[in-house]
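ok trying this again, last paste got cut off
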Amino acid sequence: MTCLICGAVLPEGAMFCGDCGSSTTATPESRRRADPRPGDTTIMEEPVRRNSGVISIPVDGFRPTTPLATVEAAVAEEGRSVHPSPRFVLAFSTGETRTVFGTGLIGRKPLPQPGESFDQLVQIADRTLSVSKTHLEFGEHEGMLWIADRFSGNGTIVRRPDDGAIRCEPGRRYLVPRGSRVELAEQYFTVE
């Protein structure tokens, strides 16, 4: 009896070749690896890409925490509005509405990580516990609201008025135009 792979002489009843380690039933054809290249040469057109609304904003470190009273006093001296950034009204499925500006966190019990600072923390009353403690982050970019899922347990979905639903990838920022609906597990809010 000889090995069909390397040709070594094998003892009677051997199951494996002592030289190459192949099974005695292996053939050169069964040992040949499959060709990883596709069998056809069809040219495929690139799919039409729609604007996902994902934005990248460079972060130049964290802003130092400044007491709100100090900010309001300094702004009042200059004669400007206290909150110059755009305001967005979030109408929640719980019946509550919140006017937000700047940056913030939304969740059952939102809590910033050490070293982070936000203008607002928006708490949602969710008895089903489907919304994470710190579910998402929001901010403003060129007059539009953006959100970023904070690795929540049940995820975040954005439904824009002129587009389909987009499941948010954790850690990425998505633009949310007014009239959109943002679903946080079993709860949601609309942006007005």
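PB: full thing came through this time. The helical segments are 28-31, 68-78.
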